Amino acid sequence: MFMGNRPKSDPLKAGYLGLELENTTSGVRISGVLTDSPAAQAGLKSGDALVEVNKHAVKNIHDVMKTTATILEGSDVDIKIERKGESFSLTIKAGSGL
Questions:
Q1: Which residues make beta-bridge pairs with 79?
Q2: Rounded to an integer, what distance in angstroms lies between the CA atom of residue 72 and that of residue 74?
Q3: What's the CA gap between 87 and 55, in Å, rounded?
């Protein structure tokens, strides 16, 4: 049910990456990647350290949540991770909600 005027276009849809995260003493670690998610398609893996999201350093999950709160479906998200001592930068296209 709509209250007031009907919107002229569809509301914007939030995007998702498909990551499960955990805080560690050294930052944010990817603890899981949802099957067939944008993150899985980009090659992210459990155990990767999440260093930056959209050029913002992340030190804890709260930083990640603040940085990703406005990401819309279809948006490009720049990610920097560390895996086994090497840094990788990649761009993930945010998927549609779960």
A1: 53, 90
A2: 6
A3: 14
Helix (H, G, I), strand (E, B) or coil at 40: helix
What whole-number distance in Å separates Cα of residue 77 and Cα of residue 87?
17
d(CA 4, CA 88): 48
34-47 residue pLDDT tens: 999 999 999 999 99
Pair of tokens at residue 22: 């955990």
Q: What are phi and psi of 73, to 5 degrees?
A: -50, 130
DSSP letter at 65?
H
pLDDT of residue 58: 96
Q: Residue 66 has what DSSP assignment?
A: H
